[in-house]
Amino acid sequence: MSYIKLTLGLSLIVLLTSCTTKKIEVVTDKKVVPVKPIELKIVGRKVVEKKVIVEDVYSKESDFFSILQNDTYASLCASKNEYEKVLLMPTSKERESLIENLLVEYAQNLANGCINIKDMKRKIARNRANKIKSSFKIYTQKVDTKKILEQYRFEKVTIKDILEPYVPKHPDYFGFVAFLSDSTLSQQKRHKLRLNIERLKLMKSYDDTNFIQLNIPAYSFDFYENNAKSMSFGTVVGDLEDQTPVLSSKLSYFIMNPAWNIPDSIAKKTIIPRMLKDKKYLSKKGIVIHKNYNLSSKKFRQKDVKWEKYLKESVRYIPYKFIQMPSKTNGMGRVKFIFPNEFAVYMHDTIGTWRFKSPKQSIRAVSHGCVRLENPLALIKYISTNYTQKSYASVKRDYDSQKMKTVSLSKKLPVHITYITAYIDKEQKLRFYKDLYGYDSMQKLNFSL
Fold it and tell me: Are residues 173 and 222 in the same domain?
């Protein structure tokens, strides 16, 4: 009988080899955990199983236990009890089955997070009942259980390889995970950090390292190239009643010198009351009234309609549409960037550039849901140069013409509107933003820290 000693991380595996049955014991944290005997045969000097080479048999379970012990991907979550149970179990088919189930659960937690989604949706519905427009889109991944188990049982791949398709792509993910081991963090900050880790798991996954992130609590626009920030500036986001939705989409085109199709909610809340007080309000703001948002549709004058009835709370639909024509006083500014979504929100320029000089919530969280940009011309330049068939010079001429022009992207660019209340500063210290919309208190983990 011969002996093979193999050291993997904290585990020592000893194979007692002969030409028939092999006995394997895993020594983990001073506990001996037997592993199911494996029928082997000798091929020259190499010991192999019928389907899996012996190195894979012993290493995968050890690698997985090492990942679980350190919770490398912050995805043990509610599976902690199962993990502790498996550690104490003797070798058996039940134990093998539990390990495989645990691997699938770990991948599921990694792919789709550990936030109580049902509870969050109930609270968002309650917000809407209280006339607070809030939305937090969840993007789940399908976990391929069959493929995971086949890889684990039969293929020469590592556990890292098996989990790789489900790892969040955001460059801050592992930086946040590393701070979970910081013993100086209070329970409150640890919980807040963990919520943000889970939110990164819920982002839509695009196979693109170039993307735009609009982070609501930070009032920030960040352009990432190869997963590193290349352009950053400020934003203005939705107020507490008309919150900017959390979602992912792709930037498709931008409109220079746009007309603003004023939503009914804004018309009712702002435009109609102001024009009733000032008969010259519409002409001063360059606003026209049409049957619909098509400028070729029938046009109306203010005196053609009895507007008071549309101010009643019971009336929600207004059969007339207010459109602000392109101008220097247009609420959209000189450009708006379109990424299709069910909430009809977009990024746009603004005439209120003074707002970017203050970090105050009362100044930076005032829009009706869309995102106002501090430096839209820089974005036009970058996008026209890298994502359109046009030169920046020709795009700039159209911009200066003050005529409405639409420019399509030749390659659509991922856009993520996020709600991340943690960040790592330039000194590599963990910091937090104010919980602007209350999601830190609204969202709950589905496990105890």
Answer: no
